[in-house]
């Protein structure tokens, strides 16, 4: 009978990447992806389970099928083998990847080649820009959180930390990091970053996942996605991205 129908549950991993997603100290989880998925509930019946986790753990849980979905992910060929991206992207950031060094290290990174031979803290599992991602000659030191990266920098265990400028500047003020001890290098890489919702592979074959995908496209076409991300100061997704 109809009463027996179980309401499907969709678990979403959310990392702390203000201003786009946040986890407060008492575990309140919010963000653009949460708003979008909640909006989908107007047309589809499902329960949402939010799972707060550090970025690298979120990614791992998604790949291993411990959560169904995660938002704000940059699409890379490597990731496409491990998860399924829902098109269109819902966030576009014109952003700079920047490198922080210690003030007193007097390092000067003026161009990409200056990065060679420097120990650079990166977030485990994170994607930056293509050349950097694929460059195996760089000395990358994977860490679990941006906070750890900054600590290693201050303890002189790494020379540089790579970060997305907006989130890093925001994080510094929140973590109340001694930003006066850190300095941004001249070299930066400007890029438009597209953030997607992604499903774990098993969940992607599920009926509810297919409905969510269609819903995402309809919300994009109606301009609803643009409205939902506006409070996060995210630009509208340009129409050429909507050719899914």
Give a quick summary of the entry.
Helices cover 30% and strands 32% of the residues. The protein contains 9 helices and 10 strands.
Could you please describe the fold and organization of this structure?
By secondary structure, the chain is an alpha/beta fold. The protein contains 9 helices and 10 strands. The chain has an 8-stranded mixed beta sheet. The two termini are 37 Å apart.
Task: Please give the structural blueprint.
Blueprint: E1 9-14, E2 21-23, E3 29-31, H1 32-40, E4 47-52, H2 55-63, E5 69-73, H3 77-80, E6 83-102, E7 119-123, H4 130-134, E8 139-143, H5 146-154, E9 160-164, H6 165-175, E10 182-200, H7 201-204, H8 207-221, H9 224-229
Parallel strand pairs: 1-4, 1-5, 7-8, 7-9
Antiparallel strand pairs: 2-3, 5-10, 6-9, 6-10
Gyration radius from CA atoms, angstroms: 19 Å
Helix content: 25-40%
Strand order of the largest sheet: 4-1-5-10-6-9-7-8
How widely separated are the two ends? 37 Å
Flag low-confidence runs. none
Which sheet architecture does the biggest sheet show? 8 strands, mixed
Number of beta strands: 10
Give the overall pLDDT as a whole number: 89
Number of helices: 9
Topology order in helix (H) and strand (E) letters: EEEHEHEHEEHEHEHEHHH
Secondary-structure class: alpha/beta
Principal-axis shape equals elongated
Instruction: Please report which band the strand proportion falls in: under 5%, 5-15%, 15-25%, 25-35%, 35-45% or over 45%.
Output: 25-35%
């Amino acid at each position: 009978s109809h009463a027996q129908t179980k309401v499907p549950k969709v678990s979403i991993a959310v990392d702390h990447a203000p201003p786009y997603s946040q986890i407060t100290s008492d575990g309140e989880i919010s963000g653009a992806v949460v708003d979008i998925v909640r909006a989908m509930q107007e047309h589809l019946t499902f329960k949402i389970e939010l799972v707060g986790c550090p970025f690298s753990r979120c990614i791992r849980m998604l790949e291993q099928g411990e959560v169904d979905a995660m938002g704000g992910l940059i699409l890379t060929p490597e990731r496409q083998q491990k998860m399924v991206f829902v098109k269109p992207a819902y966030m576009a950031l014109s952003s700079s990847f920047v490198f922080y060094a210690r003030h007193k290290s007097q390092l000067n990174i003026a161009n990409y080649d200056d990065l060679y031979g420097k120990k650079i803290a990166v977030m485990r599992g994170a994607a930056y820009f293509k050349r950097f991602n694929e460059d195996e000659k760089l000395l990358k030191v994977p860490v679990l959180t941006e906070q750890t990266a900054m600590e290693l920098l201050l303890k002189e265990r790494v020379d540089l930390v790579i970060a997305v400028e907006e989130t890093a500047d925001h994080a510094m003020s929140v973590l109340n990091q001694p930003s006066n001890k850190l300095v941004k290098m001249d070299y930066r890489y400007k890029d438009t970053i597209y953030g997607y919702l992604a499903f774990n592979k098993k969940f992607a074959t599920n009926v509810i996942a297919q409905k969510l995908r269609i819903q995402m496209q309809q919300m994009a076409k109606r301009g609803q996605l643009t409205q939902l991300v506006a409070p996060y100061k995210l630009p509208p997704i340009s129409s050429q991205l909507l050719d899914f």
